[in-house]
Design goal:
Shape: globular
Order of helices and strands: HEHEHEHHEEEHEEEHHHEEHHE
Number of helices: 11
Largest sheet: 10 strands, mixed
CATH architecture: 3-Layer(aba) Sandwich
Mean pLDDT: 91
Structural class: alpha/beta
Low-confidence stretches: 9-31
Strand content: 15-25%
Radius of gyration: 18 Å
Number of domains: 1
Number of strands: 12
């Protein structure tokens, strides 16, 4: 369990009168100072065959993580890792409404190679979870890669102290907090309210309650949530991106191939880069700018000198 989240979780449990057992853990050590904090891996072509696209996804994902120093920089032996894709919609991978399943499979394999004890994969879906998990392709790919894939139990959410500017407390799924490491894996797509769905927006999948309330002040709500959850690693899937009519999509004409995977530890920089793939200026996206103004990360992602690789 991540140190800051452990303190918050135990405080919440104590306030609720819950008997949370104290278990040993090792504080997370970040990547070495000379490792880049962001990488961008681009593919040399845009393959069309299903098997070739799956190969592309694995090669790009591995290249992006290796450029940061490898998965062992983020996942230690014995860790429980929670991978949070976007599995919101009853759509096939070709429609770019959900994270690419082959990217998730590659990350699971890399976590296993780094010595993870268990890898969990889930999301709070918008459409039927049974149809969405299956049709997205993520359930099958993740299970075949060895992950524990499960539906979020609505009775298990716990009210936790977010202590944000707008959101003071909210129902959060406890396994996110209990995990030693959290990897946030959004797909790049348009959103009719927030303009973009990227890493900050993808974190709404860890909460319950009346999530539509977040959309009423999304510029404040998303940075509040991101500051509380604090993923250890963000991996942006831009193999296919949804240019219009998001977040649901449904028309292949709205999908473009970018053949890119980016990885990093700066939530703001990662979203800033993702916004450019949708031809948006990061400073024009209210929640990204707000997160940057709060000092949560660098909106000028290029100032981080991201390592760029062609695979």
């Amino acid at each position: 369990m991540r140190e800051s989240k452990r303190r918050e979780f135990l405080t919440t449990c104590a306030a609720a009168g819950l008997g949370c057992a104290m278990s040993g853990y090792a504080p997370f050590s970040a990547a070495a100072a000379d490792d880049p904090v962001m990488s961008i891996a681009r593919y040399k072509s845009s393959p069309e065959e299903k098997e070739a696209i799956a190969e592309e996804a694995e090669k790009l994902t591995r290249a992006a993580i290796d450029a940061l120093g490898g998965m062992s920089k983020f996942v230690s032996k014995g860790d429980v890792v929670f991978i949070k894709p976007n599995i919101g919609w009853d759509r096939t991978p070709e429609l770019a409404a959900n994270t690419n399943p082959d990217v998730i499979a590659a990350l699971i394999k890399m976590c296993d190679e780094a010595g993870a004890r268990e890898v969990k994969v889930s999301d709070h879906t918008c459409n039927s979870e049974r149809r969405t998990f299956a049709r997205s392709g993520i359930q099958k790919a993740a299970e075949e890669a060895g992950a524990n894939v499960f539906f979020l139990n609505p009775r298990r959410y716990q009210k936790m102290a977010i202590n944000g500017k707008l959101i003071k407390e909210w129902d959060v799924y406890p396994e996110i907090i209990e995990a030693d490491k959290l990897i946030n894996v959004p797909i790049v797509k348009h959103h009719m309210i927030s303009q973009v769905t990227l890493g900050l927006k993808n974190l709404m999948g860890v909460i319950g309650g009346a999530r539509d309330q977040f959309h009423q002040r999304i510029d404040q709500a998303l940075p509040d949530l991101a500051a509380f959850v604090k993923p250890d690693l963000i991996v942006i899937d831009a193999i296919r991106v949804l240019l219009r009519n998001g977040p649901v999509g449904g028309n292949p004409k709205d999908v473009a191939r970018k053949d890119v995977i980016a990885a990093g530890t700066d939530q703001v920089a990662m979203d800033a880069f993702g916004a450019t793939l949708l031809d948006r200026k990061p400073e024009d996206i209210s929640h990204i700018k707000e997160a940057a103004d709060r000092g949560m990360g660098q909106i000028d992602y290029q100032s981080l000198s991201p390592k760029e690789i062609t695979v």
